[in-house]
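User: Hello! I'm new to structural biology and keep hearing that structure can be predicted from sequence alone. Could you demonstrate with Cellobiose dehydrogenase-like cytochrome domain-containing protein? Please show me the input and the output so I can see what each looks like.

Assistant: Of course. The first part below is the input, the amino acid sequence of Cellobiose dehydrogenase-like cytochrome domain-containing protein. The second part is the output, the predicted structure written as tokens.
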Amino acid sequence: MYTLTLTNIISLLLLLLSSQGSHASATPNPEGSSSSSLDLSKRQAITRKYCNPTTSICYLEYSWGPTVPVFRIAVPDSAASNSNFDTLLQIIAPASLGWAGFSWGGGMTLNPLAVAWPNGNNGATVSSRWSTGRTLPSVYSSAKYRTVSASRNSTHWMVETVCSGCSKWNNGGLSTTGVNTFAWAVSQTAVSQPGNSGSSFAIHSNIGMFSESLDQAKVPRAAFEAYVKGAK
């Protein structure tokens, strides 16, 4: 079974502290509010299996509320724990968000990060990042993202991307049999250079995390590979 490393445990504790004592597994602020106070009675994080009726690809889906993106993850069913395999990530974000970030290791530091933002009328940029501290994450060349699809309308922007290099990293990796912890962060501030994957971006305004096995994310290998084949 996958066990969190000491560095990721520290990252989780820092994430909890940075949310000022809130429950970091699902703790965004209401949209438009600068306060970190929470009303847990009005919101509940949900993880479930979601299957796209058009593509028949199924995902592990995490959702919280209308001001936070829906995150969906899929992996090939042949994947082994702590090994190199492609991972599929879909982010459906409210139009009000300037960027959305996803952590494959459950914290900001010492694991692969995906930071995505809208780019143009129907595009999106996904940047591979890594952080060793509580500063702007640097570009991470050991993980590569290829876009499967992207879109944008008046209410949401969406990007789906396949990552090579996000399932295993120094001192960590995804478990395909046990529970994994993932994390996310968002900001309403647009990035400075939307067309540049190395662009700087503002500090997050909301953060959270969730823990779940990848059982609901497993897709038959042939179907997975066929789906991501044309990603660029």
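User: So the tokens describe the shape?

Assistant: Right, they're a compact way of writing down the 3D structure. Reading them back into a model, for example: The CA atoms of residues 75 and 87 lie 5 Å apart.
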